[in-house]
Specification:
The structure holds two protein chains of two kinds. Chain A is mainly alpha-helical. Chain A has one domain: Rna Polymerase Sigma Factor, Chain: A (Orthogonal Bundle). Chain A has twelve helices and four strands, in the order ββαβαβαααααααααα. In chain A, strands 1-4 form a two-stranded antiparallel ribbon. In chain A, helix 11 packs across helix 12. Chain A is globular and about 50 Å long. The two termini of chain A are about 30 Å apart. Chain B is an all-alpha fold. Chain B has one domain.
Chain lengths: ~260, ~80
């Protein structure tokens, strides 16, 4: 099957039609790359997770988060969801090709086990097939719906596993050894060949480590504020503040990115 | 709860980080604020996509897809 998308590689610092990016991107990695500016000669609608907006007049504006640019004529995510709702297996096959890598990365981040992640990935796409009728474009984008579903399944899987404790120990080791484990710093090469994914990483990597860790524990581990407080030996109020500030920064950074693009 | 506080809580809500007492207050405010609240919560779900996209995509074996598609086609036959 011909893949109906390609990675966008049109970001060039020498492009004459560059856009200035938000302050959140002023990281050392950005500085090394010469200011981290972005070419504007790509249809902004495609950069901004609006793959299905033309087909869905009622969809609300969303923050920018797609890393994939579709080939001309390729079905949008929403087209594929509608086809899946009509029980077309080819649509599921295409959606799988587009997003299996992202969803597997998410699952792996939660459960840290390759074989279990593969099994869960298969189950999640089966659930996408079975639950497609419950998807509504008015409530969000297909990717958001899939990520929400995948995250819930992965966290459920993690909790059910007796290995939860072991995962916590691994997390402990990770956070001690690699405080920046969640989001690696974007390299110059990634910025040269950057896409929305790199920009999202930059927004997140601009957070102080403590805020990043709190969000990681909440999002990827499904921990409550109290659990985070206990796990990190931090006062509950501090955890709450870290989460609120960190999430606000990410939200605002993404929003700003949408406006810049 | 004013709208700014509601916005803060919405971001915690979408990642499942509200404590039960906060959740009750949040749901009350959500009812009061109506569509405006629903729209904002909807926007906050973009955080999920962003977090997923912040990760390096992982490879999976083609056997997974083969199994998936065979299960789907099997289900269709029934």
């Amino acid at each position: 099957m011909v893949k109906a998308y390609r990675r966008r590689e049109s970001v060039g610092r020498n492009c004459p039609r560059r856009l200035k990016l938000p302050n959140a991107f002023n990281s050392p990695a950005c500085a090394r790359s010469g200011g981290f500016s972005r070419c504007a000669d790509v249809d902004p609608a495609r950069l901004c997770m609006n793959l299905d907006s033309e087909a869905d007049g009622e969809a609300k504006p969303r923050l920018p988060v797609t890393a994939l640019e579709l080939e001309p004529g390729a079905p949008s995510d929403l087209d594929l969801m509608h086809a899946i709702q009509a029980e077309n297996p080819d649509a599921l096959s295409q959606l799988y090709d587009r997003y299996n890598g992202i969803l597997k990365a998410l699952i792996l981040r939660v459960i840290h086990n390759e074989a279990e992640a593969d099994d869960l990935l298969q189950e999640i796409f089966m659930e996408i097939w079975n639950q497609a009728k419950n998807f509504s474009a008015q409530k969000g984008k297909p990717l958001g719906w899939m990520v929400t579903l995948a995250r819930r399944r992965a966290i459920d899987g993690l909790r059910k596993k007796q290995a939860y404790t072991r995962a916590e120990e691994r997390l402990q080791a990770e956070t001690e050894q690699q405080p920046e484990a969640w989001v690696h710093n974007a390299t110059e090469r990634e910025i040269d060949f950057g896409d929305t994914r790199v920009l999202v990483r930059e927004v997140i990597s601009s957070l102080p480590p403590a805020q990043k860790q709190a969000i990681e524990l909440a999002f990827f581990r499904g921990m409550s504020q109290r659990e985070i407080a206990a796990n990190t030996n931090t006062p509950l109020g501090t955890v709450k503040t870290r989460l609120e500030l960190g999430l606000k920064k990410i939200y605002d950074g993404l929003k700003e990115l949408r406006h810049e693009l | 709860m004013n709208f700014e506080e509601f916005q803060n809580r919405s971001r915690l809500y979408v990642i499942g980080a509200l404590e039960s007492d906060e959740l009750e207050e949040f749901e009350e405010a959500r009812k009061k604020l109506g569509q405006k609240a629903e729209d904002y919560i909807g926007e906050c779900y973009a955080l999920h996509e962003a977090f997923a996209l912040s990760l390096q995509p992982a490879k999976s074996s083609s056997a997974i897809k083969d199994r998936l598609m065979s299960m789907v086609r099997e289900k269709q036959k029934r």
